[in-house]
Design goal:
9 strands, two-stranded antiparallel sheet, elongated
Length: 284
């Protein structure tokens, strides 16, 4: 849904590229824009000290605006873009050979309202009662109010929770595949040494000695695979486009599961070794 459209821009200018940005608004401005009281025909965008600002946009306050608010309809408003987008934008206008005046002004074309969340961040003065302020906003501005902790909880229970579940499932599948591969490797190595195992039995070695040798082999493979995976994670993670947080508790749990998996992986090899008859060492 369009809130403010700059149709004149399409007639007067050639539109080379579009960027979608958020807009830092005050409470009364959000309500006014939803009521269609915004106008951007004379507005332009300024790049200043690595930030982007909207100049000249006119938002007419509603008559029902709170009396303690002193609205400025044409105040300078900050646009919300990622740092990478701002750098790309500055680089494009500079490489295009625009004059300083042209490079410092960009054109706002359209303000739109979709399924995004309009939010206003409020910093309270020292000693202010957060609950009273929140209740005042609910009663007079009809907004939902969340503290930083409540906002964090909403994020963790929503999108971040789903992402965490997907990553957890992916990690579980990787662990299962790793254990299966370790089991196959241990089994193959045991088969290759089956005659040596039969010789140990022939000279009187106990089953515990054979089991211990196979378990040590499995544990060595498990620890080596975990160490390699941990080293690759530390090397690759900083280059990811999104920040990855690895909790020490989760890493410890993964390590414990891998160790338990290494013990399970050696089961088939132990079973086959214990069934090997001593006479096989003599070629029987």
């Amino acid at each position: 849904m369009s809130i403010a459209d700059n149709k004149k821009a399409f007639h007067d200018y050639f539109i080379e590229e579009r960027y979608e940005a958020g807009l830092a608004l005050e409470g009364w401005e959000v309500k006014a824009m939803r009521a269609g009281r915004a106008q951007i025909k004379e507005a332009y965008v300024v790049l200043k000290r690595g930030e982007v600002f909207l100049i000249g946009a006119h938002i007419t306050p509603l008559l029902s605006a709170s009396t303690h608010v002193h609205p400025d309809p044409v105040r300078t408003r900050k646009l919300l873009l990622h740092a990478s987008e701002i750098s790309k934008l500055i680089g494009k206008v500079e490489r295009a050979g625009y004059t300083p005046e042209q490079a410092s002004r960009l054109l706002p074309l359209l303000a739109s309202s979709g399924d995004t969340v309009n939010a206003v961040l409020v910093n309270l003065a020292p000693g202010a009662d957060a609950e009273r302020v929140a209740q005042h906003v609910r009663d007079w501005l009809y907004f939902n109010v969340f503290t930083s902790d409540e906002e964090r909880a909403l994020m963790l229970e929503g999108k971040l929770a789903r992402m965490s579940a997907v990553l957890g499932l992916f990690r579980a599948l990787l662990i299962i595949v790793s254990i299966v591969i370790i089991a196959l490797i241990v089994y193959v190595l045991t088969i290759e040494k089956i005659r040596s195992i039969a010789t140990l039995k022939l000279i009187g070695a106990s089953n515990w000695v054979i089991v211990r040798l196979i378990m040590e082999q499995s544990m060595a493979l498990t620890l080596a695979s975990f160490a390699v995976a941990y080293g690759l994670r530390e090397l690759i993670a900083p280059g990811f486009p999104r920040t990855l947080a690895f909790l020490a508790q989760e890493t410890a749990i993964t390590f414990a599961v891998m160790l338990a998996g290494g013990v399970v992986a050696s089961g088939i090899a132990v079973w086959h070794a214990l069934r090997t008859p001593p006479q096989m060492a003599l070629g029987g």
